Amino acid sequence: MSQTENQVMLLQLAAAQLSISLRESEKPFNDLTKLFLEIVRQHSRINELLNEKPEPNIAEIHRLHKKTELQVKQSVVDFQFYDRMNQRLAHILSSMQKAILLLNDAEKLQDEQKWESIFHSIEKSYTMQEETELYEAIKSGEGFETAVNKLIAKTKTKEAIEPDIELF
Predict the structure, then answer these.
(1) Could you give the angle at the alpha carbon of 143 between the alpha carbons of 137 and 147, nearest 5°?
(2) How far apart are CA 7 and CA 75, in angstroms?
């Protein structure tokens, strides 16, 4: 690839990763907000039930407890989406730092092997399947928008990537 093609590919990779991170973070953030508000409401309701006279409604307390437990687990899953975003951003930063070093050295800038080394390092740093797929799509010439839209369509629902997420 030419020097310009290498630079464009690197910028496309960074932009695609940022775009996906931003798009993926919107729904989990909104979901977390709703879940925590619901947990607070349920906690208040449990407190009311415990203070009922003459006896608390134990069945209702158990139901609310179970519902709250499930919501807390869902919150943990949603928080792990932020971990995924953080990983992507760290990879972008690392890639950009490597490129900056190369771009600042006129001799290395023309060295195709140095560019290949950077791209190999980027590819090997990926820990998520989606990152590898994005890299391969852009490397094959799909372009930024096509690669991003293709990956977003694949991971549109949380269920598509939840096998990568673990509850503690």
Answers:
(1) 50
(2) 39
CA distance 39 to 56: 20
73-124, pLDDT tens digit by residue? 888 877 777 777 778 888 888 888 888 778 778 788 888 898 888 888 888 8
Q: Tell the burial category of 56 from Cβ atoms under 10 Å away from its Cβ (0-12, 13-18, 19+).
A: middle
Contact criterion met (CB below 8 Å) for 8 and 139: no
Q: How far apart are CA 29 and CA 75, in angstroms?
A: 10
* Predicted TM-score (pTM) of this structure: 0.58
**Euclidean distance between CA atoms 50 and 107, whole angstroms:** 74
Question: What is the C-alpha to C-alpha distance for residues 12 and 144, in angstroms, rounded to an integer?
Answer: 6
C-alpha separations of 31 from 4, 34, 127, 132, 140 in Å: 41, 5, 25, 27, 35
Say how many residues make up the chain: 168
CA distance 87 to 93: 10
By residue range, what is the domain housing residue 31? 3-164
Asked if 160 contacts 154 with a C-beta cutoff of 8 angstroms, the reply is yes
Domains held by the chain: number: 1
